[in-house]
Amino acid sequence: MSGITYVRGDATAPQGKGVKVIAHVCNDLGGWGKGFVVALSRRWPEPEAAYRRWHRERAGNDFALGAVQFVQVGPYLWVANMVGQRGMRTGSKGVPVRYEAIDTALGTVAVRAGELGASVHMPRIGCGLPGGKWSRVEPIIEGRLTGEGVPVTVYDHD
Questions:
Q1: 135 vs 94, higher pLDDT
Q2: In sequence order, which residues have a C-beta less than 8 Å from that of residue 14 and are 6 or more positions away?
Q3: How many Å separate Cα 153 from the centre of its chain?
Q4: Alpha-carbon distance 42 to 64, whole Å?
Q5: Which of 97, 103, 147, 150 could bridge to 126 as Cys pair (CB 3.0-4.6 Å)?
């Protein structure tokens, strides 16, 4: 039994009270325009603008696989841009998802969620365009978040 709550709905409209962090996976190429990020950008311009700036200025910052950028989009709401996929296409090196990077990023999210007293909300990260398997991602979430007492809600869109 996982400590993850599964609901039908939109992860860009997280349920419940208190401070919330919406966590999602980005690629390491600076691309933003397909998948869950489209829904994010429809709701708030800041996460995309911050991600693109973070990538553009990567020579002087921490942009890399496993890194996380926190963007505040409301008084009690943050978006965590997690770099968890190498490239954007399945090719000779397999699918773009990088489980180790997601693991590292979720460790950072857990620390920030603890500082904020926040719950974490997400789609099935790494399992859409990045090509990952939920059977590999779910235990990472349990180890990094729910296992550390951070409430997590995963949204399955209708």
A1: 135
A2: 20, 22, 77, 119, 121, 153, 155
A3: 12
A4: 25
A5: 97
Distance in angstroms (rounded) separating the CA atoms of residues 99 and 93: 14
Distance (Å) of CA 60 to CA 53, 54, 101 = 11, 9, 20
pLDDT tens by residue, 18-35: 999 999 999 999 999 999
Note the pLDDT of residue 77.
98
Per-residue confidence band for 91, with pLDDT thresholds at 50, 70 and 90: confident
Determine the 3-state secondary structure of 44 from DSSP: coil
According to DSSP, the residues that pair with 82 across neighbouring strands are: 25, 68
Nearest CA to 28 among 69, 114, 75, 88? 88
